[in-house]
Amino acid sequence: MDYSLEEAARRIARARHLVAFTGAGISAESGIPTFRGPGGIWDKYDPQVLELDFFLRNYDRVWPVIKDMFYTVIHKAEPNPAHYTLADWEKRGLLKAVITQNIDNLHQKAGSRNVIEYHGNTRQAVCLDCGRTVPLTEEILSQQVPRCPHCGGRLKPDFVFFGEPIPPEAARKALEHTLRSDVYLVIGTTGIIIPASLLPYEAKRNGATVIEVNLHPSEYTGKITDIFLQGKAGEILPALAKETEKFLPSSN
Ligand code: APR
Ligand code: ZN
Fold it and tell me: How far, in Å, CA of 59 to CA of 218, rounded?
């Protein structure tokens, strides 16, 4: 396993189909708590609240908890240099797709366009009674227990609950980019939640170079990671971008 920023930059600059696979760690420096690790969401909340049948049976009790877990903090969060680096690489045609496990919309806020939201999003909800898709506006989220503005029905956030399938279109696009990838950036994820966490293994099996950016070793490190860049994503990605410039054909 290599630890060299220069080697990672060289691979990125020469990549034919660079893909970034991101987890909660990329948003940590934007003030969004990760799920695991010190101060993680699962230290504070019982994962049961994200089990679909528990949510449906305890609708009035769970919604305020979910708002506290996600919506309040996501609403205030801004992208950090890691998100902006990926958005810039996409604009310049270097990065082909971001596959994210995150539901915080920060990749889009940073300007990324081709963002595959493997676990859905927090922008909207689906009404379980009239079936409409409802944008989660401040007005709806200000209700103690959000209800459908059309029929007063119960709203299910549009992110993937435990026990729910991955949105089929996201699953298809994510696998397609993963199998086409020759350089696969894995940023800020423990690599333990399936099926999302299986994607880097698919990339590796298909011959991609796996470059991992993480504060700590993950399930991938020492197994499929070719280059491990340890540290904060918000610091490493801009440094990697600077180093990559050296290997890119000069713009003039
Ligand atoms: N920079 C880079 N990596 C970081 C940083 C940082 N500033 N801070 C934390 N990390 C790393 C941690 O070392 C850890 O490996 O980010 C990872 C966060 O791990 P998790 O909280 O488990 O997040 P993630 O892997 O995205 O979880 C996957 O689990 O609960 C489900 O659906 C939820 O999408 C989530 C999935
Ligand atoms: Zn409705």
Answer: 34
